[in-house]
Backbone:
């Protein structure tokens, strides 16, 4: 009788371990890059570096790419009909976290870049919108508490 109970308990434990193993799927750990097409890639890369501090893609493997600070990342998928990105032909929008929304907005405006600040403060922070020189929508986000 004890042998039968031992075998049954072992079989149950084996089944549980197989079930748990199948639940522990591998997953991505973050965003490793953001790639998009541009009419003038070099001009746009320079604009992002000059105005937003995003380093250009390194030309060699010896140079490290832009390092972002750790923080929340929303992976939002919208309806094909959304107007949230601006023009209907725009299929993406990037959101950059910032430490001081007022300071970066002033800096961008001083450089002649139009920025619209959302007057509302949301539970997750404050937002502003602008476009890069090719009309791609950019959202700036100062998370709450920063």
Residues:
């Amino acid at each position: 009788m004890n042998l039968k109970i031992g075998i049954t308990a072992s079989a149950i434990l084996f089944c549980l371990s197989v079930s748990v193993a199948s639940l522990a799927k591998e997953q991505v750990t973050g965003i490793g890059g953001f790639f998009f097409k541009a009419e003038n890639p070099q001009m746009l890369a320079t604009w992002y570096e000059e105005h937003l501090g995003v380093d250009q893609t390194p030309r060699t493997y010896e140079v490290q790419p832009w390092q972002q600070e750790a923080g929340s990342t929303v992976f939002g998928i919208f309806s094909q009909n959304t107007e949230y990105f601006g023009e209907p032909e725009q299929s993406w929008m990037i959101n950059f976290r910032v430490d001081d929304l007022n300071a970066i907005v002033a800096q961008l405006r001083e450089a002649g870049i139009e920025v619209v600040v959302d007057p509302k403060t949301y539970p997750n922070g404050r937002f502003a919108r602008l476009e890069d020189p090719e009309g791609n929508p950019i959202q700036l986000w100062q998370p709450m508490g920063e």
